[in-house]
Amino acid sequence: MTIVESLEKAVATLAPADLAEFRRWFAEFDAKVWDAQIESDAAAGKLDALAVEALAEYRTGKAREI
Questions:
Q1: What pTM was estimated for this model as a whole?
Q2: What's the rounded Cα separation, in Å, for the pair 31 and 57?
Q3: Which domain does 38 fall in, by range?
Q4: Do 22 and 11 meet the contact criterion of CB atoms below 8 Å apart?
Q5: Per-residue confidence at 64, pLDDT binned at 50, 70, 90?
Q6: pLDDT single digits (tens) 3-39
Q7: How many distinct structural domains can be found in the chain?
């Protein structure tokens, strides 16, 4: 059994209150991991092409407010 399968089984047995707490914790954890990845990608220049493209579209009037 893989670690993921073990975790799936453990999560499936959580009481509703514990599951809610786990969801809260995981959402916070996942957001922190995502933020760290975005910061790392930005520092490495991996998002530069996207920024250039977005600014070009904005300057040519192709962008619109959402």
A1: 0.70
A2: 29
A3: 14-59
A4: yes
A5: confident
A6: 999 999 999 999 999 999 999 999 999 999 999 999 9
A7: 1
